[in-house]
Amino acid sequence: MAVPARTCGASRPGPARTARPWPGRGPQPGPGARRSLWLLLPPLLLLPLLAAPGSSAYSFPQQHTMQHWARRLEQEVDGVMRIFGGVQQLREIYKDNRNLFEVQENEPQKLVEKVAGDIESLLDRKVQALKRLADAAENFQKAHRWQDNIKEEDILYYDAKADAELDDPESEDVERGSKASTLRLDFIEDPNFKNKVNYSYTAVQIPTDIYKGSTVILNELNWTEALENVFMENRRQDPTLLWQVFGSATGVTRYYPATPWRAPKKIDLYDVRRRPWYIQGASSPKDMVIIVDVSGSVSGLTLKLMKTSVCEMLDTLSDDDYVNVASFNEKAQPVSCFTHLVQANVRNKKVFKEAVQGMVAKGTTGYKAGFEYAFDQLQNSNITRANCNKMIMMFTDGGEDRVQDVFEKYNWPNRTVRVFTFSVGQHNYDVTPLQWMACANKGYYFEIPSIGAIRINTQEYLDVLGRPMVLAGKEAKQVQWTNVYEDALGLGLVVTGTLPVFNLTQDGPGEKKNQLILGVMGIDVALNDIKRLTPNYTLGANGYVFAIDLNGYVLLHPNLKPQTTNFREPVTLDFLDAELEDENKEEIRRSMIDGNKGHKQIRTLVKSLDERYIDEVIRNYTWVPIRSTNYSLGLVLPPYSTFYLQANLSDQILQVKYFEFLLPSSFESEGHVFIAPREYCKDLNASDNNTEFLKNFIELMEKVTPDSKQCNNFLLHNLILDTGITQQLVERVWRDQDLNTYSLLAVFAATDGGITRVFPNKAAEDWTENPEPFNASFYRRSLDNHGYVFKPPHQDTLLRPLELENDTVGILVSTAVELSLGRRTLRPAVVGVKLDLEAWAEKFKVLASNRTHQDQPQKQCGPSSHCEMDCEVNNEDLLCVLIDDGGFLVLSNQNHQWDQVGRFFSEVDANLMLALYNNSFYTRKESYDYQAACAPQPPGNLGAAPRGVFVPTIADFLNLAWWTSAAAWSLFQQLLYGLIYHSWFQADAAEAEGSPETRESSCVMKQTQYYFGSVNASYNAIIDCGNCSRLFHAQRLTNTNLLFVVAEKPLCSQCEAGRLLQKETHCILPPPSPPPAPPPAPRAPLLAAASLTPHPCPADGPEQCELVQRPRYRRGPHICFDYNATEDTSDCGRGASFPPSLGVLVSLQLLLLLGLPPRPQPQVQVHASRRL
User: Fold this and answer.
1) CA distance linking residue 742 with residue 56, whole number of Å
2) Which of 11, 588, 807, 827 counts the most CB atoms within 10 A of its CB?
3) Three-state DSSP class for 365?
């Protein structure tokens, strides 16, 4: 009989809507149950409610009924997999072919020590080349004679930016016709460099804001030309060398081999002195406190210059440095939430840069407050810090107080803290006190009158810090290896060995030794070259090698995949962020940083390749240090990857026989074969199209044999062996079976050897899995999970529902083949089937009903009889679903939900998913993706005037009051100093065009995955929503990753509160006070991950301000050069002021009125102290 219509709160036959659930055999609800009002009653109390005498309606099925349905589902899946999966048959095939392969063992300790030794040898060859270069550079410069009258036409060199500048009709060099001294070269494509190169010359890159015709630069070009022969000799001794670079302290970069500069689309802001490798090589680690004067005298333009200066100063710091930023007037306070020195990593520096923009000028100047705060910060020994160079950087517009009493109290007589002072803006203040502060504390005084002077003056303090290194001589000549960063010339991710180059000249006989650092020598090593030294395919799909540095940042890791290509930011992915963090991994990381050896088996969580699932697995970690470097190497192996197969196909006739099953002509009878796109041979042309790759492979195999020296014999033999083994599976199992009988779209097998065979051939048209089994999510998850792993088709919430036409949508079911040979166990393959979604949805309804088979008529209830509801007859009132371990819908008895298969279940039934989570069927794991990329937010209204310059209107000019206002005076000052310091207009435009705000930059994405919780047995409960309560039953299906759920369909919308969504959340900075510029807009979600309702998460991840209170363990470099008794501190900067002239101001105003401002020149002169 028909079930009466129901309304919200109305009574209905059968169990009352206020009935309470029964616990059955399941455990008690988890902590979330207390939030959701779960009320439980013993089974006996509920039975009368379920089957009330005389009721003429369907009742909610009893627990034993639903358990019976679950067993039927389990038996059906198991039966199909036994018949079509062919697990047992494949085991027999392997044993029958036992003479064709050997079982090899992965011995973790031996493996990791061998790889560490190979990496050490690789890097040692680069170290020897570095030392030859540094010694030669010092000798060349020492022998060089300075030329005061040198001219551009006297120097012949290849300007790496010449071609780009010639193509730019507005380039100043084109206008001046200064290309006579520039070589024109021919280049050849070199795959090792991923670039066109010329091995006969070096190339020179000079920053845009440096005048390449200055005497200092021309002398630098003159003596560094001799490095060409050393570069070429190094390459002769080691042909694997990549970029060899000399970064000069003057800003000149000379690199080999020559290649045109990769000029950006807009202004090129590259300066070698701001590259991570140069900063690390030019000085020892730093503890820096930046204090900024925000008194009322710091008006608009000056405050803007200070903010920009602080940001540029932060860019000169690396991950080995520690920093804090404070503002001061009468009192001093930190500009951000950081109350002490923090590591100068990318995320912390972003926090500082955003906070600095909120500084407001008010009050009076109090140098004492600022310096006392800075010294207190540096004296705090209860925090992690660099413990090497200590310095205070003060930005101010000027003042009279010398605060000598503060220096006497905190810094004298030892002067362990250097003080650098910066006079910012255009003013008439006496700069003598600022100069005195710097000179009295081993620092330096700089002037920043305009924005064009910021970059050069915020990085030259490195020259001062380099003095102790130069004076230390050979003791300081130690090679350091950087963490990972993006190469500016297109090599991709690299590490660089660095070695400082010192000035060995003396001013005269008996004079003091020169203290200047000439620059830093660097040699790049591509990460891909290091990866080639690691075992790839013998470790299995889930085994891998990784390496970390002293900061805990990964050098090698399969999850190191930065999305951005911004070479200005180093790649700093912590080992604990590359994996899912736990206490065991923290212990492993600490041991590796300390340079210890170790081995540990742990139970841990891993994220699936598609980032939709979490698996609990066992892993063996083994690690050793890489000697002579700052790195430590680790090896991760699952227990089932202890052994692997190595094919031994010595029979050439058998090789040919198996190879024929790779030919497309065999696909119709034997099934389609996808081969993993691996580097089988050197001459094999790669292709993203697997059909084309297979064609290239076959063509090459017709020319060479699997035993050819140009091929990887291990990969080739294993590939051919697996081709034959999977063909035998077709012959013994698949070919004689009718897939339609069990509503299967396909059967398949994938192997460690790189073969994926899909049967029948036509099913390959809809096969979307990765042809590399090691990169296929179903393959890796099947190895880590016992039983059958269901994988519904992936759906993004932004995409349209599934297309069910022509039965093309399928659900993968896979399982690993475990092979035992003697006492050795391994998993060399995964087999499975592809279910027809629509047919199995119908079958699912029958299996979860009172019918025994699909042809049996449906059971009908009479007017006076009582029946239990089932998933077929009562699908209008009863919801029955299968959900996988990630919370994604697999099957449903609701026809309208079939196109939602693969979606996170909360999008299908929000309150039921929330109930499952609150009752511990699912556990949530939150993590952060620190390698995401976010597009910049579109800029607001932009004018044509230089940024920061006030442009008066006609009404302003006609207003007499305006001529006497502060705005007019400020405009005069801006124009005056913009003309005196030519780079003001051009540099500001450069910053506007090339600034991080206009580029895609790194950001953080919050990810939330769900996985099965502690509940394993049958469980019944009620979702209490007042008058709209819902009964539900949930039970795990044995030997699968499925959860069987039966529930009453929802009546009302009150139960929709608290929705779990499938989403990847962009971390957004909550608006502070005062609010900064809007954050970058989030990119589209990369992968579907389950997440709570979107809400702003902290800037750059999980509460950055709290994380710095519990910093992760790290160790700085082993050496520190911050003091030398013979250091000469007399060169500490000289000031100069530019009082405004009334005549000049009047002239400038006339120019403004006429609209004829002179064209500015972009270059700035190199600092005078750079005369060599």
Assistant:
1) 37
2) 588
3) coil
Asked whether 209 and 983 are in contact (CB, 8 A), the reply is yes
Specify the higher pLDDT residue, 507 or 142.
142
Question: Bridge-partner residues for 396, per DSSP?
Answer: 423
Task: Please give the backbone phi and psi of residue 221, each rounded to the nearest 5 degrees, phi first.
Answer: -65, -35
Phi and psi at residue 492, in whole multiples of 5°?
Answer: 95, -145
Contact, 537 vs 502, CB < 8 A? no
Name beta bridge partners: 323.
288, 342
Average pLDDT over residues 251-261: 95
Residue 822 Rama label (left phi>0; alpha psi -120 to 50; beta): left
Query: Minimal CA–CA distance to 271: which of 1169, 987, 936?
Result: 987
Whole-Å CA distances, 403 to 365, 400, 411, 429: 12, 9, 12, 17
- Mean pLDDT calculated for residue range 404-424: 96
pLDDT, residue 1002, reads 67
Least confident piece of the model among 267-276, 737-746, 835-844: 267-276
The answer to whether 389 touches 1122, Cβ cutoff 8 Å, is yes
Distance of CA 1032 to the CA centre of its chain: 41
Q: Retrieve residue 302's tokens.
A: 């000056």
Query: Which residue would you say has higher pLDDT here, 32 or 373?
Result: 373
**Nearest-angstrom CA–CA distance, 732 and 89:** 8
Q: How far apart are CA 110 and CA 105, in angstroms?
A: 11
Spatial CA neighbour of 656 closest among 708, 729, 696, 706: 706
- And the tokens for 726? 């999977």
Show Cβ contacts of residue 469 under 8 Å, excluding neighbours closer than 6 positions. Answer: 283, 284, 476, 500, 502, 517, 1121
- Residue 821 is given by DSSP the state E
Which residue ranges make up each domain of the chain? 84-105+653-796+806-837, 114-165+180-271+478-525, 285-452, 534-637, 878-935+1001-1048
Phi-psi map region of 177: left, alpha, beta (phi>0 left; psi -120 to 50 alpha): left
DSSP lists the bridge partners of residue 744 as: 835
Q: What is the pLDDT of residues 676-688, one digit of tens each?
A: 999 999 999 999 9
Q: For the chain, how big is the Rg over CA atoms in Å?
A: 36
Q: Are 737 and 770 in contact (CB under 8 A)?
A: no
Instruction: Outline where 413-566 has alpha helix (H).
Output: 432-439, 454-457, 461-465, 467-472, 527-531
What does the DSSP 8-state code read for residue 712? -
Largest CA distance in the chain: 120
**Residue 159 tokens, joined:** 């300007």
Instruction: Answer whether the bond into residue 760 is a cis peptide, omega within 30°.
Output: yes
Cβ(769)–Cβ(1020) under 8 Å?
A: no
- Is CATH 3.30.450 the right assignment for the domain spanning 878-935+1001-1048? yes
Do 285-452 and 534-637 agree at the fold level? no
CB 324 within 8 A of CB 342: yes
CB contact at 8 A, 630 and 549: yes
Handedness of CA 762, 763, 766, 767 (dihedral sign): negative
Residues 6+ apart with CB under 8 A from 1126: 471, 512, 513
CATH of segment(s) 534-637 = 3.30.450.20
Residue with tokens 């305009």: 450
Inter-residue contact 1064 to 1005 (CB < 8 Å): yes
Cα–Cα dist 960/748, whole Å: 86
Classify strands 867-868 and 58-59 as parallel, antiparallel or unpaired.
parallel
DSSP assignment of 1095-1158: -PPPTTTTTHHHHTTSPPP----S------TT---------------HHHHHHHHHHHHHT-PP
List, in sequence order, every residue forming a beta bridge with 922; answer none if it has no partner. Answer: 1012
Strands of 1001-1012's sheet in order across: 922-934, 1001-1012, 1065-1066
The backbone torsions φ and ψ at residue 157, rounded to the nearest 5 degrees and listed phi first, read -155, 165
Q: Determine the Cα–Cα distance for residues 566 and 1171; give it in Å rounded to an integer.
A: 33
Q: How far is CA 545 from CA 420, 470, 579, 632, 1087, in A?
A: 45, 38, 13, 11, 25
